[in-house]
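_Backbone structure tokens_
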Amino acid sequence: MREKVVAAASDRYVIVVDEAKLTDTLGRDQAVPVEILPFATSFVIRRLKERARAVNLRTGAGKASPTITDNGNFLVDATFGLIEDVRSLEAWVRTIPGVLETGLFLDLADAVYVGAEEGVRRMLRQ
């Protein structure tokens, strides 16, 4: 959630990644992180399971307790399989009471710099 607030408040938002982050299809092997109110955990997980193949409350390495965000909330990882309409999915997830934010960063980046063995590639918003 904080990353999106910073991105939205910035005059220019630039993302730097390594080429392993690039994909032609979203969701095939990746889970979508969702920040939720702790109070709403059971309800949100139940609702996400209406469309997701798997929903897991994120825990720290070697811990049984949930990961807590800087804002004191929980994270769940929802695996939807191949996501063909990311805007529709994000809109649906945001309608669930208790969901605060998704890890889908739509229309925020002005530029993305991709590091690879052969150098850096710059991708600009069209």
In short: The chain has one domain: 2-124.
